[in-house]
Amino acid sequence: MSIVGLYQPLIARDELVACLDRMTARKVTMISAPVGSGKTSLLRAWAERPDRDRRLAVVQVRRDQHDAQPFWLDLLAAVRQAFGTTHGEPPTATPDFNGRAMVDRVLAELAEHHGRVILVIDDADELASTEALAQLARLLASLPPQAHAIVSTRRDLWLGLHQLRLAGELAEIRAADLRFTERETRELLEASGVTLSGAGAALLHQRTEGWAAGLRMAVLSLVGHPDPERFVAEFSGTDRTVADYLLAEMLERQPAEVQDLLLRTSLLDQVNSELAGLLTGRPGSERILLELEDANAFVVSLDPGRTWFRFHRLFGDLLRLELRRTLPEQVPALHRRAAAWFARHGHIVDAIRHTQAAGDWPDAARMLADHAFSLTLDGQARTVEVLVRAFPLGTAADPELALVRAGSDLVQGHLDEAAAHLAVAAAHAETTPPDRRRCLEMAIASLRLWLAQRRAHLAGVVEQAGFLASPVTGRCGEEIAIANDLRAVALMNLGTVEAWSLALTDAERHLREGATLAREIARPYLEVACLAQLGFASATGSLATAQERCREAIALAERHGWGAEPVIAPALLTLAETTIWVGEFGEGERWLRRAVQALEADDAPGIRLRLHLVTGMLHAGRGRPREALEQFRAAGRLQSQLASSLALSSQVTGWTLATQARLGLTGEARAGLTALADDKSGAGEIRNARAVICLADGDPAGALGAVRDVLDGTAPVIGYVTVVEAQLLAGLAYRALGDRCAADQSTERALALAEADRLMLPFAMTGSQELLEALPRHQTAHAALLTGILDFLSGSSAPAGDRRPPPPVHELSPGELRVLRYLPTNLSRPQIATELSVSVNTVSTHIRSIYAKLGIEDRSAAVHRARALRLLSAVR
Length: 876
What we know:
Blueprint: H1 14-23, E1 28-32, H2 39-47, E2 54-60, H3 68-83, H4 99-111, E3 116-122, H5 130-141, E4 147-153, H6 162-166, E5 170-174, H7 175-178, H8 182-191, H9 198-208, H10 212-222, H11 228-234, H12 239-252, H13 256-265, E6 271-272, H14 273-280, H15 285-294, E7 299-301, E8 308-311, H16 313-326, H17 331-344, H18 348-357, H19 361-377, H20 381-389, H21 399-412, H22 415-429, H23 434-455, H24 461-466, H25 477-500, H26 504-520, H27 524-538, H28 543-559, H29 569-581, H30 585-598, H31 605-621, H32 625-639, H33 649-662, H34 666-674, H35 678-681, H36 684-696, H37 700-711, H38 720-737, H39 740-755, H40 761-765, H41 769-773, H42 783-796, H43 814-822, H44 829-836, H45 840-854, H46 859-868, H47 871-874
Parallel strand pairs: 1-4, 1-5, 2-3, 3-4
Antiparallel strand pairs: 6-8, 7-8
């Protein structure tokens, strides 16, 4: 019999569809019922109803969705498709996914559009991640007014929607609502060409209890049956009995080639014509699959082109049971064929699953070991964990899996366990053939390097990274690709630890090599990571260069949807730090807020130390020493979690001690200074702190002695800003000694060093306002910078409670004030527009308005007038 002859049109359930349509007036509609109840059919019938006033964003959750990230990427793509928007390149997977940020992103894009939009989420029960369910609950509770959601699930989900229910904003359709009535059962039989008596139809409805899938399977068997009344009379038993019976009835009535295709392809979650042909060994699979779907024979197409298909899940489970019963000896070979096809086409997870299903555990372990790192970089760390758990106990000790377990441990921060697994992997690598040993040794070296970076074991990093210094050539392209992945990660980690240890030349070289290689092998996540660290590596030199590199990294991250992910946090922190150095506190605080958001899913002590350090800088610049001290102390506590001291530790310790002294805690500061080891106390940042303590104790001569080695270049320093601080501290000491000439010379040297980047923060942190005011204007070569710093200090250096309020600035709009901030710089109007992300016309309009409101005619006069009115300080 032809498959087309089995076609069963679905009846129109207009009342149920209308009910669903009315329910969408509420914020959320839940459709909760067992498998085969007709949930998806109802959604399709409702969606096909014409309605110009709505847009639909439809997502079907993938089976066994262990990772939240793919679901949210699918939902975001559906929203964009519904509105016909792109927002740049499609979001890309990342190993450090930030679910909260993604929910905020979906909500923001929904709020951008004013038309009515309905999110349709089918098979929500497949979300196996509690994190994803919590994020979904937050999305549903926070939908903008014009957005609504329909969630279809086989089981009740704990989404905490009680507040919506109390507010009357939650509608529900349950199994009882979806059951076919007796009238609908008769309509289904008539539409399918099946003639049954009234009693027979009532009996069928009673036996199936209106279960849509049961009715549909029964009708398929009844079409053309010689004795339909007898069939219905014998149609009874438990669900398993009914399912087994209907499966046998349906399979027996299919052509032999269709039966064979159904059985052999049932072991696949998804099938296309090529795969079906491979497993059956015959052509014509595409025609059969299309006819099966047209016949509503539990085959559903997954794409608009109808090239990929899946079986109804219950049907697929039963087919697999029948496959094991009738062709048990062929099951392993079928899995091997499927695994080989998936591996050739780059579907590595499916290839590993089918290799496991074939019982080829050593091959599955090797394949997982080869690709676990790549899968992690694609945001599938949890999938890797699930694959590892699928290995039976007897194979759990496979040394190939040790490498995989080490990577998972590192992601989760289980560093001791990672080290133990790496030791097992290293011992195993020694026993492998040479052509494979190279890739294993590269993977081990890369993970050891990553472990060293996480532990701040800087001394051992170069030893691990040296193995990865040259490109890899091998026998097959797959091995080369894996090796290149590992080498790019190694270069990123090596450059990162070199940047932290201030080996800046090597750091820049390795990070640039890593970014270039990542670009060549199409690993944008690694490219972003390298660029973000490259910005940090530049921060101790030119602030402008550091900012340029950070903005490049952030732009690339945002194109791939990673603007709020941990990978970009180093660039966000560096932008915050550099803007704070030049006194742009409002801008620095904005970047800090973004960094805090990006680090929600990252508790690594190194990056958290930087977060506290930069936050302390902001408080210190704003005249909040107690808050600054709290942040510096928090940074200091994180140092104890690292295996070795970072180069920044001298800055953390120095600023902690100096802030204590400025708050009058000189005894505590001196005790901290005394407790330092000799190899720490010679750093320039610690010498500066000693000078601050001496000045607080009334010992200016001691302060001069403390900074002498900083000023003559013999003391190691983090960067030139330490020398600027030392010059200012020397000036304060000379002033206290009554040597005005020497004080002016030190101040002039500090201005000369600060000129290139127009530093402001060191002058605020050292309390140098009176020192600057005493410098004769006609004697300085940096009069413009001096004036700018004094304007800055008049609005920022005094304690918050003692500052004089600036004059009212309500005459200038917020946009005009933002433009005004850039007028003292050398930036052109197009450059200012780029900085503010507005058009040049907008900048020109604001500038004309500023001129008019200030009563001047040119830019120089506007800057002079704004400084006189202290407007530049007021907008910080």
